[in-house]
Amino acid sequence: MKTEKIGSAEFQTWTVEEVAEAWARDEIVLIDVRTPQEYMFEHVEGALLLPMPFFNAHKLPGQKDKQIIFHCGSGVRSEKVSRAAIEAGIDRIAHMEGGFAAWKQARKPYIGTNLATGAPQQVNS
Which residues form a coiled coil (predicted)? Predict the structure, then answer.
């Protein structure tokens, strides 16, 4: 994990492996900031959808029980959202380096769309 101090806040960049391990232990809330269309086509099972255009850092839940980690397709949007959360006064926030593309490249399980039927299906499980 990489960390960056921004004022009194800590901005964290987690690797796919770190996210996957924490996700498996139910230690984090994973928030996908991609579009609804991207999410519907493929997503990490159980990740929450909060598209970047609708993001409001002041409405995020506290992190007393679980750390919030954002992800997007490549890591660009999730980094922007994470920095916006810090600007809004959240003192510890994180995003996943490389985004969903890195998740897939690491062959982590996700929900994809069966192109023959249009139905959701497990991939890499």
Answer: none
